[in-house]
From TrEMBL:
Residue ranges of coiled coil: none
Lineage: Bacteria, Pseudomonadati, Pseudomonadota, Alphaproteobacteria, Rhodospirillales
A Pfam family hit: Ribosomal_L10
Protein name (database record): Large ribosomal subunit protein uL10
Top-level division of the source organism's lineage: Bacteria
């Protein structure tokens, strides 16, 4: 990799860090190519990104970003997962690490706060942005449905009473 390619990589990583809400740092030593592809696919499915990075270049890219506190974690075979959704990358990595002990979560950062491996695990337990949006939409529509059913109920009851009264009158005339 020549000097220009390194500069381009550093600037690309800085841009990615600027767009991300979370960065998870992992060790991947011992994972096969197939396992890495499976992990990448799972991370992509939730809208996140997983990539192997060069430690020195990544530390350079971290300077001046909210993830600057992660610099010490970049030793050995490291890979990062980044995402605009603060929970998505953590959830995908933690779920994969549960089934494959070769992926070791070292830590992460979110909104300038450095998290240890346990903190990343706790972050993964939270609902994702999409899940929160669905819950919020459910909460918003539920009262509207109740209001609609309550306002329709008296009219329906009134219609049934009138029909019963009309039926009673028509039977009284027939008798």
């Amino acid at each position: 990799m020549n000097r220009d390619e390194k500069k381009e990589l550093v600037s690309r990583l800085q841009a990615e860090f600027g767009e991300s809400a979370v960065c998870i740092v992992t060790h991947y030593q011992g994972l096969t190519v197939a396992q890495m592809e499976t992990l990448r696919r799972k991370v992509r499915e939730v809208g996140a990104r997983f990539q192997v990075t060069k430690n020195r270049l990544t530390r350079l890219a971290l300077d001046g970003t909210e993830f600057e506190g992660l610099s010490d974690l970049f030793t050995g075979p490291t890979a990062i997962a980044t995402s605009a959704d603060p929970v998505a990358a953590a959830k995908a990595c933690v779920e994969f690490a549960k089934t494959n002990d070769k992926l070791v979560i070292l830590g992460g950062a979110m909104q300038g706060k450095v998290l240890d491996a346990e903190g990343v695990g706790n972050l993964a337990k939270l609902p994702s942005l999409d899940e929160l949006r669905a819950q919020l939409a459910g909460l918003i529509t539920t009262p509207a449905q109740r209001v609609a059913s309550v306002t329709q109920a008296p009219a329906g009851q009134l219609a049934r009473v009138l029909k019963a009264h009309a039926d009673a009158e028509s039977q009284g005339e027939a008798a």
